[in-house]
Amino acid sequence: MRGRRNLWMxxxxxxxxxxLVYGLYVLQRQQLQQQETIAVVxxxxxxxxxxxxxxxxxxxxxxxxEVFSDEMVTELDLAVGKEAAIPLGKGEVILxxxxxxxxxxxxxxxxxxxxxxxxxRSVSNGIRAGDRVVLYTSGNEDESRRIFQQAVVxxxxxxxxxxxxxxxEQSHLLSLAESNKxxxxxxxxxxxxxxxxxxxxxTEEQWLQIDRLCKSGESKLVxxxxxxxxxxxxxxxxxxxxxxxK
Length: 246
Known about the structure:
Blueprint: H1 2-36, E1 37-43, E2 58-64, E3 83-84, E4 99-100, E5 110-115, E6 120-123, E7 132-139, E8 145-146, E9 152-158, H2 172-177, H3 181-187, E10 197-203, H4 204-214, E11 219-225, H5 228-245
Parallel strand pairs: 6-11
Antiparallel strand pairs: 1-2, 3-4, 5-10, 7-8, 7-9, 7-11, 9-10
């Protein structure tokens, strides 16, 4: 009986010793892997071009140091709230040029169209790149109406000298990048030139509809500034704050 008990004790001790050795091996392997790899941001799912990146859409994955470059994003908060500039596959390393910071680029189904001057009846002087505007048609005979239910993004507003309209002392684009609503408001009070050219991010269907309505000259566009321009900043800030709280 004593011999059997000693046998079980020996077997148990051997198993515990093996488990300890294996645990140390796994720990050393993990430490070695962490020393040879770095955590980078990758999509947790497929993300379409132009889609807004939310916290649950990205995760950290380890990649070998030998393939690491400065363009790789290493912090989740740097991707949350941005828009994908190109389609991003699940597990694909996100480089900093693969998303848009200021939401000025067209989304997946959009292109940037310069609106012909003879299509425009009036344009709000306060609009700037990154704003959202509402489009109306105004004609001599037809009743004025809103063209699209949703607002569209202003890609750029240019002067006759092809210079971006901005405030030289309080840059609108810099305030937009910093989500500084007060700075954006101040920047609209003065400008370096008059608006001559307006570029909008539109789908093909939207552009063709505008062209059909305005090419005869009987109807023209009224481009109005939308309060969604500031509302979007609140949405961006809430997304980032929510991500930091998790």
